[in-house]
């Protein structure tokens, strides 16, 4: 792997760095630019990587991961001293910022891969959607994929607009499952279970269901039908969900997230 620079040393950057080092990347090949001195010392101590307070220190690397908050990305990009003929690959994990805007802020002509990861990447079990602009070479595409595979699975989309749907499904998705867990825990307590017992049952059930879905050749629909006996308790719960038009509730929620992703890109890109 080539040298990799990170602008921003937050949790997602730290997760990627940890995953890359676990995958065999030398710490000496990684540089993090981070304004917070305490955070720099923490990252250097934890991983043995190079650190700097100057974002331009990453320009000596072949790949730069833009890991700052979306609201700061324009300022960060415009302050980078990049040359027009730069062969650098920029990977952005800033939610909602289109590759065209990133390229424009970087003075144009830059290879940009836009990435939409999710928070389970912090545990190296994330899901990331990636889009590459036309300047990204095949080798750079492979490099970006290897970097993001350090924290989970990678899915490429051919149309950047599809990243709004990726955001709705997987980017925001963990919160939907947390909401379901929260509701099930509250319901279990209402039915008379102890709070600690309910939490353990809900979390282990969620883990088990996810593993069954991942490790089975059957679809989620088929798995649901397998555990839904005619006239049984599960059937009654499913019928209650369906009577409230559960599928439409989920569709409306994801559509709202998709639409908000589009509007955020419009707002942040126009600044």
List the helices and strands and how they pair.
Layout: E1 4-7, H1 11-22, E2 30-33, H2 37-47, E3 50-52, E4 63-66, H3 70-79, E5 89-92, H4 99-105, E6 111-116, E7 126-132, H5 138-149, E8 152-156, H6 162-171, H7 173-190, H8 195-215, H9 220-226, H10 233-243, H11 246-269
Parallel strand pairs: 1-2, 1-4, 2-3, 4-5, 5-6, 7-8
Antiparallel strand pairs: 6-7
Helix pairs in contact: 6-11, 7-8
What does this structure look like?
The chain has 271 residues and is an alpha/beta fold. The protein folds into 2 domains: 4-171, 3-Layer(aba) Sandwich (Rossmann fold); 173-263, ProC C-terminal domain-like fold, CATH 1.10.3730. The protein is built from 11 helices and 8 strands. It has helices at residues 11-22, 37-47, 70-79, 99-105, 138-149, 162-171, 173-190, 195-215, 220-226, 233-243, 246-269, and strands spanning 4-7, 30-33, 50-52, 63-66, 89-92, 111-116, 126-132, 152-156. It has an 8-stranded mixed sheet with strand order 3-2-1-4-5-6-7-8, sandwiched between helices. Helix 6 crosses helix 11 (246-269) and helix 7 (173-190) packs across helix 8 (195-215). The longest helix is centred in the last third of the chain and has 24 residues, at 246-269. The mean pLDDT is 95.
